[in-house]
Amino acid sequence: MNDRERYIATILGQPTDRAPFWLFWGPWGRTWQRWQAEGLPQHLHTFADVQVELGSDTMPLTLPVNIGPCPEIELVILEEDDDYIVYKDNWSIKRRDYKHGESMSAFLEFPVKNREDWEQFKATYLDPHHPDRLKGPWRELGREWMAKGYPIRLGAFPSAGIFGPYRWLMGDEEGLIALISMPDLAHDIMDHLATLYLTVFEQVVAEVRVDEIHLWEDMCYRNGPLISPKMWKAFLGPGYRRIKAFADAHSIPIVSVDTDGNPARIARPMIDAGVNLLFPMEVAAGCDVNVWRREHPDLALMGGIDKRVLAIGPDAIDAELARIRPALDAGRYIPELDHLVPDDVSWDNYTTYARALMALIGKT
């Protein structure tokens, strides 16, 4: 089987020669610096080089079409001192970042506060028919990837999703409050996002075979989803069903969602709306892929290996891989880390993990 055939068969629960061997989650910037100091081979300039060196299968490649703000918004630095930088990002979000370590931004202000803001942002940056959305080499790349048997997808962080880009526009708390205080606005934003994606995707699938539509959401935290199952069905459900209908009409077999945290309470609404692959299944948030495989046999999973054990050493790595073995044996599961590799993980421990995972999967 080639990488595309193996990936699709795994997600759909069909017979395969083995599970995909993926090194999907890369290192933090500080982790990369540590690896360089610890003997990372000099010919490995990027994590993509590491993936090739350690034998990772080819993972879904994203066609480079623009489904975010278009024309693109330039990053603008507003303030800067020795410790912090304040800027407006490519979604016009005002952020503050700490310069001396890995951390989440402090989100200071979002571009949409009311209907007037939305109509202006939509007209300026979210026209589905803007000609720049389809500029670039996506046709050539698509033909090359099809010829090589690579899996191909549409949609990627940070500009694909229904809840994810909604939060970029309105903010987490503000956006959740708006579901009650301004429901018509919330519906309009989410409906327009789905329309934008499908308008662009319609033109792409006429020329390139697509295997996956991916949605980045990050709509959960450690204790559960940010949005209730009832609200998910009312607000996100319509867009998801439109995307699933499009996928079915164009023989696209996979609709995937990336959400951190614990999505257990909204898993069934997502599955019912067409999602058949979910990741990264964070262990620290209580996600056990063995339990999820038993409870949701109609849902494929990727992730679920506790990244924290890589800092401990080989015995802990072996024990963690043994823990997830039942899910691997059950199928519809791609074993991988449950998020980016933190800076307490040595280069030796990471390569030990990669070799052990390859052996577990049975890639030769």
Please state how the strands of the largest beta sheet are arranged side by side: 1-6-7-10-11-12-13
- Number of spatially distinct domains: 1
Number of extended strands: 13
Low-confidence regions? none
Q: Strand share of the residues?
A: 5-15%
Tell me what the structure shows:
- By secondary structure, the protein is α/β, with parallel strands linked by helices.
- 43% of the residues lie in helices and 14% in strands.
- It has a single domain, classed as Alpha-Beta Barrel (TIM Barrel), CATH 3.20.20.
- Strands 1-6-7-10-11-12-13 form a 7-stranded parallel beta sheet, sandwiched between helices.
- Strand 3 (84-88) and strand 4 form a beta hairpin.
- Helix 6 crosses helix 7 and helix 9 (229-249) packs parallel to helix 10 (264-272).
Record the SSE blueprint.
Layout: H1 3-12, H2 29-37, H3 47-53, E1 61-62, E2 76-80, E3 84-88, E4 94-98, E5 106-109, H4 115-125, H5 138-148, E6 152-154, H6 163-170, H7 172-181, H8 183-205, E7 212-216, E8 220-221, E9 224-225, H9 229-249, E10 254-258, H10 264-272, E11 277-279, H11 289-295, E12 300-305, H12 314-323, H13 325-330, E13 333-337, H14 347-361
Parallel strand pairs: 1-6, 6-7, 7-10, 10-11, 11-12, 12-13
Antiparallel strand pairs: 2-3, 3-4, 4-5, 8-9
Features:
single chain; 364 residues; alpha/beta; TIM Barrel; seven-stranded parallel beta sheet; four-stranded antiparallel beta sheet; 14% strand; globular
